[in-house]
Amino acid sequence: MIAELGHFALILALILSLVQATVPMIGAHRNRLALMRVGSPAAQGQFLLIVLAYVCLTWAFIQSDFSVRLAAANSHSDTPLIYKITGVWGNHEGSLLLWAMALSGWTVAVTIFSRHLPEAFMARVVGVLGWISAGFISFTLFTSNPFERLLPAAAEGRDLNPLLQDPGMIIHPPLLYMGYVGFSVAFAFAIAALLTGRLDTAWARWSRPWTTMAWVFLTLGIMIGSGWAYYELGWGGWWFWDPVENASFMPWLLGTALIHSLAVTEKRGAFKSWTILLAISTFSLSLLGTFLVRSGVITSVHAFATDPARGLYILALFVFVIGVSLILFAWRAPKLSEGGSFQLISRESALLGNNVLFVAACAAVLLGTLYPLFLDALNLGKISVGPPYFEAVFVPLVAPIVVLMMIGPLVRWKGDDGARLGRILWLSAVASVFIGGTVAVLIDHVTWRTVLGLALSAWVLIGSAQLLRRRLGERRGTPVMNRLRGISAAWWGMWLAHLGIGIFTIGVTMVGSLEQDLDVKMHDGQVAELAGYTFVFRGAVERDGPNYDAWQGQLEVLRGERVVTTLTPEKRVYRAQQMPMTEASIDVGPLRDVYVSLGDQIEDGAWIVSLHYRPFVSWIWAGCVLMALGGIFAAADRRYRKLAARDAAVAQTMPAG
Amino acid sequence: MKRRSKRLLLLGGAGALLVGAVVLVLTAFQENLVFFHTPSEVVAGKAPQGRAFRIGGMVEEHSIRRAEDGLTVHFSITDMAQMIPVTYKGTLPDLFQEGKGAVVQGQLDEKGQFRASEVLAKHDENYMPVEAQYALDSAQMNKAAESVQQ
What we know:
The complex is a heterodimer of chains A (about 650) and B (about 150). Chain A is an alpha+beta fold and about 650 residues long. Chain A has helices spanning about 1-30, 35, 40-60, 70-75, 80-85, 90-115, 120-145, 165-195, 200-230, 245-270, 270-295, 310-330, 345-375, 385-405, 420-440, 450-475, 480-485, 490-515, 615-635, 640-655, and strands at about 385, 515-520, 525-530, 535-545, 550-560, 560-565, 570-575, 580-585, 585-590, 590-600, 605-615. Chain A has a domain at about 515-620. In chain A, helix 16 runs antiparallel to helix 18. The model of chain A has no long low-confidence stretch (mean pLDDT about 90). Chain B has about 150 residues and is an alpha+beta fold. In chain B, strand 6 and strand 7 (about 115-120) form a beta hairpin. The model of chain B has no long low-confidence stretch (mean pLDDT about 80). A 5-stranded mixed beta barrel of chain B has the order 2-4-5-7-6. Chain B has helices at about 1-30, 40-45, 130-150, and strands at about 35, 55-60, 65, 70-80, 85-90, 100-110, 115-120. The chains are: A alpha+beta (about 650), B alpha+beta (about 150). The interface between A and B is large, with 50 and 38 residues.
């Protein structure tokens, strides 16, 4: 019964989403307030219904109701409770339901937090979101119904893929989805702007916090996914340029460009068409990501669906969204006025450079990700594009962004004096190169990549200190605490996010330069050395987990005479699927991770053990957290609330168009 | 004129940047493409010499042998028509098993041995690597075509 209730709720949600997609749009077109106001309650009702459907599905998992096909395929009565709950989205159908829930959650948030916006504009935003929602709910219902029954019911479930039974997987998909779906809000704002023809600084101010929050979620989602790959796949890498990773990284790159382009649109009224185009592309890439990941085009742990009908449906949705919005763009964009002019040396130029480079980087990733798929689809041969391509391309495209990052905030809008900038920056430029070179020599790893990475990191750290000092210097005479408090949240956000890039760069450079690996056959009591650490193998013992059997190895890690820690890597076999899995054991530290995983057992009782030394990995995560924190600060800026209300009041008295 | 020339400079700069980026991307792309070949194609001499490529298929039954050091592994990849001996040193993926699909990346040495630098297996028990499946299917199709010709 519960499953049927959920199914029924989802059908009702589809009907409400269709109401939400059409009625407010018609109302906005005909200027009927009563019709426009249908949007918000429709969206809110839809959200409650989807939550109900989601709870019903979760219930089937918790109760181990294996007459529900999805629960039978992805759960097991021995699965720990937390993985029963997260197992709901550890599969194609459930994750789509999660997607729909995230989307209607964002819509409800928009109807609440942006309710002071002009009604005709809001009606269109909600309407566009309604279309997307209808697309995804119907996709779920017609091709991937999560409530499908299994007759006769299975006696026991097949359990969740062991790779997904991991704490990282508890939060990775929801965060990532909140990011993907969040960009649909930016998209809806862009489409509404095209429809109403009003695209001004007020519009940018309305759109910015939503875009920034979506970006925050995406940043954290990617970070958790990367962290999962790092400790769960057991080979100590944190980024593989796998198509699935690229699928989430491309919207991130364009989303970052969008955030910066929106800044220009808000502050200077310029880059309007470009901002709109970026908003459309970012959301399109989110859809493309879903298509790539979910359609089974790419084999990966994410490719749950190998049903061609599903891939076709998402592809059709994708083509429809891009087609309609680009036609609308081509029709309306020429009417947008272009904003104020600017000189060669100006903040606008710096941000333009940022945008060009981010788009180029995204295009490079897109090429490497899609080209093999195209060749394959056209039967022209099978190829793969590996990490060397992405690394060769990415570093030169991103390095200038990092350089610009510390110049942009110093340059004035409209135009600035090049000599003034030179005076401010030359010393830190020289110092950065010097520090980069010196540290590379000190760590005894002088390659152009290490020197470049370290110099860029130094550039960001010095630049950030310089920016803060100049900002504080603006109000000399007042106490430092007051001066710190006087700085806007938006500025802190920018500063933190940029500093995060610096920390991240340190992590990436150090791991890339100094990581060490050793695969070794170890008997009980045998000793191995790596990167100044001594590893003593104390054998492996059998251990029973809740839904798996494991061999647990014991390794003492010593630094000189001092015992650092004892690591316990495992080789597990999950009972339901008889699937073997490596569970790495990591000693995490601020300056280095010591990472051990257990390979195969050999005839004579010895084990293959993989030892990894990973310096500064924590800095990669810390950098991402700083970026996300910066985004939260930026989105929380007071002016969005204060000015947005004023803008909306002005807009109400002014006819649209 | 001054403003116009400045704009030209800006456009020219952006254009040059873009051209540079495109050249960079395409060169890197050319250099780092990894082609895929089935064991039959490799035996027919279609695989490149001195360049990395991928082979996919099944790990032949009873072909896995470990060397003395315990780390070096020998096995064969087959598409049921031809087989290629492979040598790999390192930890194997969890789902690497005899009679199951796998994809290896590496180079051919002078003796016709494939020296793998990377071994990929499936992510879970339900799915076969696409490339491995493809190798098996195309070998089977060739066989069918041959039997028709005879």
